[in-house]
Amino acid sequence: MCPESGLSSLEFTLASMPRFIRNSVAATLACGLFLALPAAPALAHDRLKSSDPAKNAKVSSLETITLDFTSKVRFPAVVLMLDEEKINLAKPKLDGTKVTVKVPEPLVSGKYTIAWRVVSADGHPIEGEIPFTVKAPTPTPTPTPEATEATEATEATEASSTPSAAAAVSSPVAPTPVTSFSEAGGEEETTEGDGVPGWLWVAGGILVAVGVVVWLSTGRKNNEA
């Protein structure tokens, strides 16, 4: 049979059917074609495109968690865990395809996990986990007030004692100089004069008086002769 005769027979058959049967056949063929189309685009949900921190990343600190999806999402929920301990976070914020969450306090070193859950644009919830590690820098020890006061007192004591010692070394006591040999000799003579006994002076005076009397008596006798 040629194709034209077969097509004519099909047209004749459809034309000879009642209208409700023809409508039913058309609806069945339309449903079959719809079901035969690829269903992947209709079943594709939104997904996480990137995150900060990334999966298995190692960071020194973390102030904000950022999740970027392939499309706009709704009703975000984010939880941060350190082993079995839940870390307090701020309320998640939506900005287009991104979800951001502030971390209020610095994180200690350890292995963390971000658990997230959102509702995609087609209404289906999606969720996931992001493990990462924090290696915080070692803080510099702060001196206590007592240690600071003791250090300042020691420095002050050393500073006050150092000038006195330097002055003692740099300024020796010099002996009193002798201006001349005559002054030294005069002092020695005066010292020796002060040491003559008084009775010698009295005896000398008596001898002088006796000599004067003898001299006067001898002179008078010579005049009388």
TrEMBL record:
It comes from the Bacteria. It is found in: Cell envelope. Keywords: Copper, Membrane, Metal-binding, Signal, Transmembrane, Transmembrane helix. It comes from Acrocarpospora phusangensis. PANTHER family: INNER MEMBRANE PROTEIN YEBZ (PTHR34820:SF4). This is CopC domain-containing protein. Pfam families: CopC. Residues 145-184 have a biased composition (Low complexity). Residues 129-197 are annotated as: Disordered. GO terms for molecular function: copper ion binding. Residues 1-44 form the signal peptide. Its main location: other. The chain crosses the membrane at residues 198-216.
